[in-house]
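Lecture 7 notes: from sequence to structure.
We start with the chain below.
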Amino acid sequence: MTQPTHPPLAREVRLACGDASLYGDLVLPADFCGLVLFAHGSGSGRHSARNRQVAQKLQQAGVGTLLFDLLTAQEEQVDMHTREHRFDISLLTRRMQDATLWVLAQEDLKQAPIGYFGASTGSAAALIAAARLGDRISAVVSRGGRPDLAGPVALAAVTAPTLLIVGGDDHGVIELNEQAFEHLQCERRLAIVPGATHLFEERGTLEQVAELAADWFVAHLKHKAGAKRAEKSEQAS
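Predicted structure tokens for the same chain:
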């Protein structure tokens, strides 16, 4: 993979998502080929060390990243005690859609191919949002996710190439991912990381996740970017 020659631009952003304001960290490498929005898992947030490690790998590969909180500070406080929001897939999906529309409204981002990286329950939200947004989403990656929670109808409607990554020792989740995989009608791959449990805490396993995700996003986001350039060139001629 080509390494960016200039340091990436990084800034904190505020996203208007319905009646909520959410905060995120946007990092754009020089000549980035696309932008990946992260949908974190239950009980996590934009400061997740695991997601930040994956994001850093994507940035090194020339992919922009947006890690943002799916819940407001008040919702997070409630969720710590009730756990009611982390499994509210419809709420998380709306937040993903709203964040995507925010990206598409930004002058420096609106032409960038968009990908989703989801973990745990965030994977279901990412897949449902991808199904609803159609060809505006160019690739999806799920890490230790629960894509089954998206439901068979939404899974069948996903058009973005989708990679499901599961730990080899995360037996219950492997089965759920296999079931979800059968419902996907898009380009798809199920990758099993040997020796990894649900959080990929074993030595070297999260690095494998990051490599798989980077390869998937670079291939599909660059392809979409090339198609956009070709279309623009045809319109200009």
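Points to note: The first helix runs from residue 49 to 60. Strands lie at 9-17, 20-28, 35-39, 64-68, 114-119, 137-143, 162-167, 188-193.
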